[in-house]
Write a structure and sequence with these properties.
The chain is α/β, with parallel strands linked by helices. 42% of the residues lie in helices and 24% in strands. It binds adenosine-5'-triphosphate and magnesium ion. Magnesium ion (MG) binds next to helix 1. The site of magnesium ion (MG) has 3 residues, from helix 1.
């Protein structure tokens, strides 16, 4: 997070993306992406709809198989195009290092909040139920929802569901948290509570890569903002520099869109369309 907060960011990258490409058929969606995220750094990724932000985020943990390039997370480096058992094992290890939070919360409706958060530690890490419950409770406490541990997801607000989803990702004790528009599906009055949890994580020194349309959050919490357009990172800068003096015309247009609210309308209609699907 930014320098007004006393956190020591190491100069070592925790994520290193090099020469990343992704084609969907003829569509070149990621074009030679290079990006480092340092230990304890918060990087926000912004860009118009369809610019490739989700594809980039999903490529980091191979939810989307990159077409070319290298992804390194916490010293584990994987080349695109790998196959076989060793590759699958490495991808599994890499996924353990990355926690991901999506726009949709995807909680299990038949499980209590606590059981939802325990699921990964029990099923993936093979921890005992007692150990997993302890970790789950600690992480529910971090997101301010320990008091809801016995509740079922359908009795939570959208903001609370997303905070449980964050606790669920944290319970796997990942090295980095990836967020893909975590507040886009929320009613406006519920956005703040989720952003506050994310701010707290940043203050605690969590390394985070966040796709967001929340410019206030990017401005306040990000160490750097990376701007995507047409499958490329066209500009990376500290938020204060980027918002004051963007060097790329496309960044300028994007920021003006946010300021005038037209981008918000785009994002809202896109979210509504996704909900209807
Ligand atoms: N599975 C897929 N098959 C084919 N094309 C895809 C697939 N997923 C994404 N795309 C295309 O790749 C491009 C980038 O999509 P992506 O979802 O990464 O954009 P985004 O920046 O996250 O957009 P948004 O802000 O709307 O979430 C778009 O043109 C999209 O239509
Ligand atoms: Mg997206």
């Amino acid at each position: 997070m930014n320098e007004t907060w006393v956190v020591h960011m190491s100069a070592e990258p925790l994520i290193r993306i090099q020469g990343l490409h992704k084609w969907f058929g003829m569509l070149h969606v990621l074009n030679d992406i290079c990006l480092d995220v340092m230990h304890r750094e918060v990087v926000c990724l912004i860009g118009r709809s369809g610019s490739g932000k989700s594809t980039l985020l999903r490529s980091i943990n191979f939810l989307e198989e990159p077409s070319a390039g290298t992804i390194e997370v916490d010293g584990l480096s994987i080349e695109a195009g790998g196959k076989g058992r060793l590759h699958r094992q490495m991808v599994h290890e890499l996924r353990l290092k990355t926690g991901m939070v999506f726009q949709e919360f995807n909680l299990f409706p038949h499980m209590s909040v606590l059981e939802n958060v325990m699921e990964g530690p029990v099923m993936v890490k093979r921890l005992s139920k007692t150990a997993a419950a302890e970790i789950a409770e600690a992480n529910l406490d971090r997101v301010g929802l320990l008091f809801k541990k016995d509740e079922y997801p359908n009795r939570l607000s959208g903001g609370q569901k997303q905070r449980v989803a964050i606790a669920r990702a944290l319970a796997m004790e990942p090295r980095v948290m990836l967020f893909d528009e975590p507040t886009s599906a929320l009613d406006p009055e519920l956005i703040g509570e989720v952003l506050n949890v994310m701010k707290k994580l940043a203050l605690e020194g969590t390394t985070m890569l966040v796709v967001t349309h929340e410019m206030g959050f990017a401005r306040e919490v990000a160490d750097r903002v990376a701007v995507m357009a047409d499958g490329e990172i066209i500009e990376t800068a500290k938020p204060e520099d980027l918002f004051r003096a963007p060097s790329e015309p496309r960044t300028k247009a994007l920021i003006e869109g946010y300021r005038s609210g037209t981008h918000d309308q785009d994002a809202r209609s896109r979210t509504a369309a996704k909900r209807r699907k």
